[in-house]
Design a protein that fits this description.
Layout lengths: L27 H13 L9 H10 L7 H16 L4 H12 L5
Length: about 100
């Protein structure tokens, strides 16, 4: 029987190497994504469990995408599925962000 392929963060049992820390590279929107994750998995809201969000983010596979980029995609899909937002609301928000004209 062949083992299931590992997810990108599934490194349990593999030989470990040095951990590289890239300090100071966090962008403001990364902090907002982290805040959204914390709020949406908070027990008082009951929208998602930490395990569910982690699994959704890991499964939001996009070649070359960062953790935070995958998290945005996973959160959008999850909120749509739960009916917490509508497709029109998401489209309006994406248009607003796109029209900001940031370099």
């Amino acid at each position: 029987m062949q083992d299931a392929p590992r997810k990108q963060n599934d490194i349990g049992g593999l030989p470990g190497g040095a951990i590289e820390f890239a300090g100071g590279d966090s962008l403001p929107w990364h902090d907002r994504v982290e805040a959204l994750i914390a709020l949406l998995q908070h027990p008082a809201r009951g929208l998602f469990t930490p395990d569910e969000l982690r699994r959704r983010i890991e499964n939001a596979a996009a070649e070359g995408a960062t953790y935070h980029e995958r998290a945005v995609v996973a959160l959008a899909h999850a909120l749509l599925e739960r009916g917490a937002i509508t497709g029109d609301q998401l489209a309006d928000s994406l248009a607003t962000v796109s029209n900001r004209g940031r370099p």
